[in-house]
Fold:
Amino acid sequence: MRILSIITFFTLVSFDVPENVNFNGTSFKLINQESAEGIYMVKEFIPEGEREDYYFQKLSILVNSADTDINTSVKTQIKEFSDRKKKDPSFKYSLTEDPEHGIFIFDYIVKKPKDSIVDFNMMKYAVSSLNNKMAISMTSYRMRSYASDAPSFLVYIKESRDQYIEQLKALDLSK
Structure:
Protein backbone atom coordinates (compact mmCIF):
# COMPACT_ATOMS: atom_id res chain seq x y z
CA MET A 1 0.00 0.00 0.00
CA ARG A 2 1.38 3.39 -0.85
CA ILE A 3 2.07 5.88 1.91
CA LEU A 4 -0.15 8.93 1.86
CA SER A 5 1.58 12.15 0.99
CA ILE A 6 1.75 14.84 3.63
CA ILE A 7 -0.74 17.61 3.12
CA THR A 8 0.62 20.98 4.10
CA PHE A 9 -1.94 23.63 3.19
CA PHE A 10 -5.68 23.92 2.79
CA THR A 11 -8.40 26.42 3.14
CA LEU A 12 -10.05 25.58 6.42
CA VAL A 13 -13.81 25.40 6.29
CA SER A 14 -15.98 25.74 9.33
CA PHE A 15 -19.12 23.71 9.89
CA ASP A 16 -22.59 24.90 10.72
CA VAL A 17 -24.55 22.02 9.23
CA PRO A 18 -28.21 22.83 8.51
CA GLU A 19 -31.14 20.70 9.70
CA ASN A 20 -31.94 19.61 6.14
CA VAL A 21 -29.36 18.45 3.62
CA ASN A 22 -29.75 17.54 -0.06
CA PHE A 23 -27.66 14.73 -1.51
CA ASN A 24 -28.10 12.90 -4.81
CA GLY A 25 -31.50 14.51 -5.38
CA THR A 26 -32.82 13.44 -1.97
CA SER A 27 -33.70 15.72 0.94
CA PHE A 28 -32.40 14.44 4.28
CA LYS A 29 -33.77 15.60 7.65
CA LEU A 30 -31.84 15.77 10.91
CA ILE A 31 -32.60 12.84 13.25
CA ASN A 32 -29.77 13.00 15.76
CA GLN A 33 -27.08 15.40 16.90
CA GLU A 34 -24.42 15.43 19.56
CA SER A 35 -21.54 17.75 20.36
CA ALA A 36 -18.97 18.76 22.90
CA GLU A 37 -18.24 22.46 22.54
CA GLY A 38 -15.11 22.95 20.47
CA ILE A 39 -14.15 19.25 20.44
CA TYR A 40 -16.54 17.40 18.16
CA MET A 41 -19.91 17.57 16.45
CA VAL A 42 -21.99 14.71 15.02
CA LYS A 43 -25.21 15.04 13.01
CA GLU A 44 -27.19 12.23 11.37
CA PHE A 45 -29.82 12.55 8.65
CA ILE A 46 -32.30 10.26 6.87
CA PRO A 47 -34.77 11.00 4.06
CA GLU A 48 -38.29 12.16 4.94
CA GLY A 49 -40.56 9.15 5.48
CA GLU A 50 -37.79 6.77 6.57
CA ARG A 51 -37.26 5.64 10.15
CA GLU A 52 -34.09 5.62 12.21
CA ASP A 53 -34.43 1.86 12.80
CA TYR A 54 -35.43 1.00 9.21
CA TYR A 55 -33.93 3.22 6.54
CA PHE A 56 -32.59 2.93 3.02
CA GLN A 57 -30.24 5.93 3.16
CA LYS A 58 -28.39 7.70 5.95
CA LEU A 59 -26.05 10.68 5.86
CA SER A 60 -23.79 11.58 8.80
CA ILE A 61 -21.21 14.25 9.52
CA LEU A 62 -18.59 14.10 12.24
CA VAL A 63 -16.21 17.01 12.81
CA ASN A 64 -13.43 16.30 15.31
CA SER A 65 -10.93 18.90 16.47
CA ALA A 66 -8.82 16.45 18.48
CA ASP A 67 -5.08 16.74 18.00
CA THR A 68 -4.80 14.83 14.74
CA ASP A 69 -4.28 15.53 11.08
CA ILE A 70 -5.86 14.19 7.93
CA ASN A 71 -3.03 11.79 7.15
CA THR A 72 -3.19 10.25 10.62
CA SER A 73 -6.98 9.93 10.37
CA VAL A 74 -6.77 8.23 6.98
CA LYS A 75 -3.96 5.91 8.07
CA THR A 76 -5.95 4.96 11.17
CA GLN A 77 -8.95 4.10 8.99
CA ILE A 78 -6.75 2.00 6.69
CA LYS A 79 -5.42 0.11 9.73
CA GLU A 80 -8.96 -0.51 11.01
CA PHE A 81 -9.98 -1.86 7.61
CA SER A 82 -6.85 -4.02 7.39
CA ASP A 83 -7.59 -5.47 10.83
CA ARG A 84 -11.17 -6.12 9.78
CA LYS A 85 -9.98 -7.88 6.61
CA LYS A 86 -7.89 -10.26 8.74
CA LYS A 87 -11.09 -11.33 10.52
CA ASP A 88 -13.23 -11.30 7.38
CA PRO A 89 -11.26 -12.12 4.18
CA SER A 90 -14.29 -11.24 2.04
CA PHE A 91 -14.18 -7.61 3.27
CA LYS A 92 -12.89 -5.19 0.61
CA TYR A 93 -12.60 -1.43 0.54
CA SER A 94 -11.41 1.20 -1.91
CA LEU A 95 -9.76 4.54 -1.28
CA THR A 96 -10.23 7.42 -3.70
CA GLU A 97 -7.82 10.31 -3.16
CA ASP A 98 -8.12 13.93 -4.26
CA PRO A 99 -4.92 15.34 -2.74
CA GLU A 100 -5.36 18.68 -4.54
CA HIS A 101 -8.46 19.33 -2.42
CA GLY A 102 -7.40 17.25 0.60
CA ILE A 103 -10.24 14.76 0.22
CA PHE A 104 -10.03 11.02 0.82
CA ILE A 105 -13.07 8.78 0.25
CA PHE A 106 -13.34 5.19 1.43
CA ASP A 107 -16.10 2.96 0.10
CA TYR A 108 -17.00 -0.57 1.08
CA ILE A 109 -19.88 -3.02 1.34
CA VAL A 110 -20.98 -4.74 4.53
CA LYS A 111 -23.16 -7.82 4.39
CA LYS A 112 -25.09 -8.80 7.50
CA PRO A 113 -26.51 -12.21 6.57
CA LYS A 114 -28.10 -12.73 9.99
CA ASP A 115 -30.29 -9.65 9.42
CA SER A 116 -30.44 -9.99 5.60
CA ILE A 117 -29.00 -6.49 5.25
CA VAL A 118 -26.44 -5.20 2.75
CA ASP A 119 -24.92 -1.73 3.26
CA PHE A 120 -22.93 0.31 0.76
CA ASN A 121 -20.84 2.81 2.74
CA MET A 122 -18.77 5.82 1.76
CA MET A 123 -16.72 7.99 4.11
CA LYS A 124 -15.17 11.30 3.04
CA TYR A 125 -12.31 12.69 5.12
CA ALA A 126 -11.38 16.36 4.71
CA VAL A 127 -9.62 19.16 6.61
CA SER A 128 -12.03 21.61 8.23
CA SER A 129 -12.36 23.69 11.37
CA LEU A 130 -14.58 23.70 14.41
CA ASN A 131 -14.82 26.91 16.44
CA ASN A 132 -11.81 28.33 14.57
CA LYS A 133 -9.71 25.29 15.48
CA MET A 134 -8.31 22.92 12.86
CA ALA A 135 -10.43 19.78 12.60
CA ILE A 136 -11.06 16.71 10.48
CA SER A 137 -14.51 16.16 9.02
CA MET A 138 -15.83 12.75 8.12
CA THR A 139 -18.99 12.75 6.02
CA SER A 140 -20.50 9.32 5.58
CA TYR A 141 -23.26 8.08 3.32
CA ARG A 142 -24.89 4.69 3.71
CA MET A 143 -27.30 3.05 1.31
CA ARG A 144 -29.05 -0.06 2.61
CA SER A 145 -30.86 -3.02 1.09
CA TYR A 146 -33.00 -5.54 2.90
CA ALA A 147 -33.57 -9.26 2.20
CA SER A 148 -34.43 -10.28 -1.36
CA ASP A 149 -33.40 -6.93 -2.90
CA ALA A 150 -29.71 -7.59 -2.15
CA PRO A 151 -28.69 -9.09 -5.54
CA SER A 152 -30.17 -6.23 -7.60
CA PHE A 153 -28.84 -3.73 -5.04
CA LEU A 154 -25.28 -5.01 -5.51
CA VAL A 155 -25.63 -4.69 -9.31
CA TYR A 156 -26.95 -1.14 -8.87
CA ILE A 157 -24.01 -0.21 -6.61
CA LYS A 158 -21.51 -1.62 -9.08
CA GLU A 159 -23.04 0.51 -11.85
CA SER A 160 -23.50 3.68 -9.72
CA ARG A 161 -20.49 3.65 -7.38
CA ASP A 162 -18.40 6.22 -9.29
CA GLN A 163 -21.35 8.62 -9.52
CA TYR A 164 -21.95 8.43 -5.76
CA ILE A 165 -18.26 9.00 -5.02
CA GLU A 166 -18.23 12.12 -7.21
CA GLN A 167 -21.39 13.41 -5.52
CA LEU A 168 -19.95 12.84 -2.06
CA LYS A 169 -16.72 14.50 -3.11
CA ALA A 170 -18.71 17.57 -4.24
CA LEU A 171 -21.00 17.67 -1.16
CA ASP A 172 -20.12 20.75 0.87
CA LEU A 173 -21.75 21.02 4.28
CA SER A 174 -19.59 23.89 5.46
CA LYS A 175 -20.98 27.35 5.98
The longest helix spans residues 150-170. Residues 1-15 have pLDDT under 50 and may be disordered. The longest strand covers residues 117-130. Residues 11-55 form one domain.
